[in-house]
Amino acid sequence: MARPFLEVSDLHGWYGESHVLHGVNFDVNEGEVVTLLGRNGAGRTSTMRAIMGLIGARKGSIKVRGIETIGMPTHRIARLGLGYCPEERGIFSSLSAEENLLLPPTLAAGGMTVEQIYAMFPNLRERAGSQGTRLSGGEQQMLAVARILRTGAKLLLLDEISEGLAPVIVQALATMIRTLRASGYTIVMVEQNFRFAAPLADRFFVMEHGRIVQQFARSELAANMEMLHEFLGV
Questions:
Q1: How high is the pLDDT of residue 1?
Q2: CATH match for 4-232 among 1.20.1260.10, 3.50.50.60, 3.40.50.300, 3.40.605.10
Q3: What is the β-pairing status of strands 18-29 and 4-15?
Q4: Labelling 67: which of 3, 6, 108, 181 has CA 20 to 30 A away?
């Protein structure tokens, strides 16, 4: 029986006076890949940010391997083995690709070595000395994910990693997610690209107006396509 790595219960979140999350409930089992689906503004990115403590205010419950994190600062949450890859990537232009890769501190034992990362992302080895922002969009996305893998994080929060990238890069990222899943990583993805997410996720959670409104397993995907068309226009 898989045990929950992440349990989110009755999560509310605010940016200033704007109440953006209205009682989010979902869980993620160890070694599982799940995807948060929904239109822009549904609350998917805000949910990721709330899990990391990067939202203005939050209440409810967010447990990581049974440890309550709702009152923790972000740096303590990260040290429980969480890594967040935001949509904006956050590559430093003043640093080389390899310096960007080496920048985050080690959070836990068991992180990938630089050599293991270069084996997974050969492009980054070739561009190791290049200025971070001179990498292509796809290479910057690979670097943003690779940076987390070196820290020892085992729960990855990936926000729109396929957005705006060439099909060949999207395919490489899909291969990466399959490899990470096979290696025991737990992954939560926010994705607008349903075709990218569909074959990768074990379960899907559909968000609307700051809450989860539907959930289903990959085996139930065909039966839920009409509902997905209604909510997402896919």
A1: 59
A2: 3.40.50.300
A3: antiparallel
A4: 181
